[in-house]
Design a protein that fits this description.
Two copies of one chain form a homodimer. With 233 residues, the first copy, chain A, is an alpha+beta fold. Chain A has eight helices and twelve strands. Chain A binds a DNA duplex (30 and 30 nucleotides) through helix 7.
DNA sequence: CGACAGGTTGACCGTTATCAAAGATCGTGG
DNA sequence: CCACGATCTTTGATAACGGTCAACCTGTCG
């Protein structure tokens, strides 16, 4: 089992911030919160460090309190795909957390990152003691499952054009109301996320621009000129 | 909200079989089981009937006790993708079950089908009362999430060749040990599931056969002659 | 200021979708 | 139980979509 790069720095004080950040806990009472604090551990990672590898045993839930984490997978033929990027408040490690299983993905700190960890046995005790937490996690899971299936359907049925356009539309939606967005990752990563190549991303965005649908600006910013046009491609 | 085709036949007796079938319940005591029976309702659907549409409110968990159910999605551009097929013991309806949300997929009975339903409020009460059920469902969800992400990664990184080969390999694996498998669906559906066309499936299987990797037989049966060769495409 | 990763552009070609038509299979009703 | 129609499947010809390789450009950071 390879652990190279996994050299996170453990802080043995209990970080209140990260717990209260997380949607799955923030409905709880103060006393319950402090019980959770007791089993939470704060860990820091430097840019590029790996939190876990595919093949590692999963034994903790990781909750991001600061920084960004890249979650990616390697396909059977060895190609990398970016699955998602975690921001503060997001969590990961859950996939194999409820059973004896191995991670199937990789988690890498994209910047200086701080996470809160809860190990499996502690988490399971919490879940049995406070069943409402399970309901929260179930809700989160069902959302993510829906997202994952929606994404799969897009790959199965839409061409690159449309996948890029939908990505732009959804990124814009997150900035409620604005007509300009900032790509949340490099075009290289975006290509990996959308199952295409940086060259194609570059070309398609140029096409969109020539059709008057968008305007590319410095610093990964893109102004959407014709959202409807973009979505009817 | 369209409900055409949703004309399932309700049986008001409580079907013991379907509950004990389900992995998420089968660890419980007899008394707990009988408590679950009380809130379960058995419903039958004829071939082609729709259990729910995308856009319907989700308010029940559906557990298959007899038959087969096709779960499919429509993409933004209106193309259909087969997401999975449910067999007895599988469940669905969970995606929007833990929140006020709408179904994003369609569920259609492929044959004469019987399902057990538990409505949202009853299920939530059960989960709060017996937290171990939540853990079971969480385990199931995390598996399915892993599957969905693996599938997405395949679409993003592998070509049709490989996706078909991997599908054959996994279907074979399900028949532990055998060197012959039966496709669990029509090639048309398989194409939809794998994000390709029936024509391409047909051609690729012929190629595999010409390369001596497989042998196609009647009744959707395929003999795998060279599994390793298939996986190194 | 230089190096290096990221990004762009062009030329080319492989893969796979599409359209069309013929052939096989399945389920149904006579 | 057979015949018919509907649907699924196969095969061929064609073209578009997008990946790959190579070269060059750009910006960012030590």
């Amino acid at each position: 089992m390879s652990r190279d790069g996994q050299q996170g720095c453990y802080h043995h004080h209990h970080d209140k911030m990260c717990v209260s950040l997380v949607p799955i806990f923030n409905h709880l009472e103060v006393e319950q919160m402090s019980e959770i604090m007791k089993v939470v551990q704060s860990v820091s990672y430097k840019k590029g460090e790996i939190l876990y590898h595919a093949g590692d045993h999963s034994d903790s839930l990781y909750i991001v309190s600061k920084g960004k984490i890249r979650i990616y997978r390697l396909s059977e033929s060895g190609k990398e795909q970016l699955v998602r990027i975690l921001n503060p408040g997001d969590f990961t490690g859950e996939l194999a957390l409820f059973q004896e299983a191995l991670h199937e993905s990789y988690a890498e700190a994209m910047t200086e990152t701080q996470v809160c960890m809860i190990n499996r046995t502690d988490l399971q005790e919490l879940l049995l003691k406070y069943p409402t937490i399970s309901l929260k996690i179930l809700t989160e899971f069902s959302n993510r499952l829906d997202e994952a299936e929606k994404q799969t359907t897009r790959f199965a049925t839409e061409k690159v054009d449309t996948r890029i356009a939908l990505f732009l539309a959804e990124t814009l939606e997150a900035n409620a109301g604005a007509n300009e967005l900032e790509l949340p990752m490099s075009k290289k990563d975006l290509a990996s996320y959308l199952g295409t190549t940086p060259e194609t991303i570059s070309r398609k965005l140029t096409e969109f621009e020539q059709q008057g649908l968008i305007k590319q600006k410095p610093h990964r910013r893109i102004e959407i000129l014709d959202l409807d046009g973009l979505l009817f491609i």
